Amino acid sequence: MSEKQSSREERRALGKAARARVPLEEHGVFEPAPDRDPLGLLLGQAESRVPELVPIRHERMLVSPFTFFRGAALPMAADLAGTPTSGFRVQLCGDAHLSNFGGFASPGRRLVFDINDFDETIPGPFEWDVKRLAASLVVAGRDNGFTDEECRAVALAGAHSYRTAMREFAGLSTLDVWYAHLDFEDVVRDLRSQLAKRGRKMAAKAVAKARARDSLQALDKLTTVVDGRHRITSDPPLIVPVEDLFTELDTDALYAQLNDLLDGYAQTLQSDRRHLIRQFALVHVARKVVGVGSVGTRAWVLLLDAGDGREPLFLQAKEAQASVLADYCGRSRHAHEGERVVAGQRLMQAASDIFLGWQSTTGPDGIARDFYVRQLRDWKVSAPVEVMLPQGMRAYAGLCGWTLARGHARSGDRIAMAAYLGKTDAFDVAVADFADAYANQNEADHAAFTGAVADGLAESVAPA
């Protein structure tokens, strides 16, 4: 049990004292360090990744300033380390850009809206998540052709929602904060008045599409039947069956090792879920390229079945490397990086995947690596950022801001943070100022990255 908690009055006083020490307006300042080296940081990440997949990562980052931003969490972490912070720490998402929010199924089979990517999660200054979210909104808005005023309005909406939600959570009991969540269908209903007809249709379509995204749909999309058994379809280099990657290994011995790894992973689940997972048998495994920033890390798709070929379960085992924020805000207390991801996800999300767990394995190269495991798809749906209009992105920014505040309120001192953020829009304006300045920096970094690929300093699948 924790020591005796400070009173609400003492916690509010702590927040107000921090405002005197670090004025809200200071969060609007971004001054690039003279020795910053974003290209060096990005290319350095290739050392721990699958070599033949690194060019795919670079290709995806070249597409636009927004796709570059998605893959450039490490350079931004280095930049954020030089910005003012209030001293209030929370469990960070670590990569809180707007495409890392979305819908998925809760254990109670409700479609909920939440953060859905925790590869970089770690305790740190709450401002870092807020600033990455706000910057992503401006970068995405510019990519969509929004005016400067429209981009600023979107960033302000996200920061305002975060601040007012934190003040709301400060007035709730600890248990009420813990139970707070966003039901996706309720969100769509509430947003109807803020969205144009096209936006309402897209939202309704997203809900219907999400409910169809399950293991049965994945079975139809990702597999073919070979000799009466489902096999994950090869589509190199994006999807490659494990036996095609390790041709020198005996297949039976390989799958015996994989089953041992599954048994170890099951030990990280709570007892009822261990019982559930043991009703499924491993059928097939393949490596799959996922995301933008994650490309090159090792990610595996595991097809399991409950015995008759008609009850599939798809799991994703994704390599967990050290958080990109670790060098700037302290290492995780979890020695296992997969456990770090799982612990952070469970702490920030209102409801997490019942199959969320972790495991380690030593690859054919003799290197031990950490992984976390979750369902590949379980009603998962992401907002189509690239077709959002200003009004729709403002509404979406509000959802993301509220959700991020809820995640932070579960792990940080919500009362002190609310007092620090205050009743005025000073924090909102400062964060929007930062977002605009950082979007400018991101555009310059994207241009430099494009030039590096053109000059042969970084390899890409397609010519720049």
Comma- or semicolon-separated keywords:
464 residues, alpha+beta, 2 domains, six-stranded antiparallel beta sheet, 19 helices, 15% strand, globular
Quick summary:
The chain contains 19 helices and 14 strands. The protein is an alpha+beta fold and 464 residues long.
Q: In terms of topology, how is this protein built?
A:
Elements: H1 8-21, H2 38-44, H3 54-62, H4 65-71, H5 73-80, E1 89-92, E2 101-105, E3 111-115, E4 122-125, H6 126-143, H7 148-170, H8 174-179, E5 182-183, H9 184-191, H10 197-212, H11 215-222, E6 223-226, E7 229-232, E8 239-241, H12 242-245, H13 251-266, H14 271-277, E9 281-288, E10 299-305, E11 312-319, H15 326-329, H16 337-348, E12 357-362, E13 368-375, E14 381-382, H17 390-411, H18 414-421, H19 426-454
Antiparallel strand pairs: 1-4, 2-3, 2-14, 3-5, 6-7, 8-9, 9-10, 10-11, 11-13, 12-13
Helix pairs in contact: 1-18, 3-4, 4-6, 6-7, 6-17, 6-19, 7-17, 7-18, 7-19, 9-10
Computed CA radius of gyration, to the nearest angstrom: 22 Å
* Topology, number of strands: 14
Helix fraction by DSSP (H/I, runs of at least 4)? 40-55%
Read across the widest sheet, the strand sequence of neighbours is 8-9-10-11-13-12
Low-pLDDT ranges = none
Task: Please give a structural write-up.
- With 464 residues, the chain is an alpha+beta fold.
- The chain has 2 domains: 8-210 and 384-454, no CATH class; 215-375, no CATH class.
- 49% of the residues lie in helices and 15% in strands.
- It is built from 19 helices and 14 strands.
- The mean pLDDT is 91.
